[in-house]
Amino acid sequence: MSKTKRMMVGITSTALVLGMAGCGSGTEEYTYTEDIPDPPEDSSCSDWEWDAEDGVWECDDYDSNYYGHYFYGGRYYKGKNALKASKDYINYKNSSSFKGSTSSGTVKNSTGFGKGSTSSGG
User: How many domains, in total, are found in the chain?
Assistant: First the structure.
């Protein structure tokens, strides 16, 4: 990933986190980019995109045979179903080291996000 692209990912991620910080009180400081692992160094793919939902890297190199594949634990997975069926990925997703989103859509390791407001018709 180029230096410019990495910087843009960092700026975008930081803006997203800062925007969500106002959603609740008592929020912890959470710098998203610090928790993302470095992209894989694999000669089969030269461009990577972080999948924030699943906490893994996706090959974004159009010229690669692995374009669109997910990468975790030194292996490529052809699609999300293959990734999510992997025992290694399941263990990672259920661990405290998981870097993706929780089922509620919030980034794991974040605190202070309330349930939002509710209203009833009437």
Answer: 1
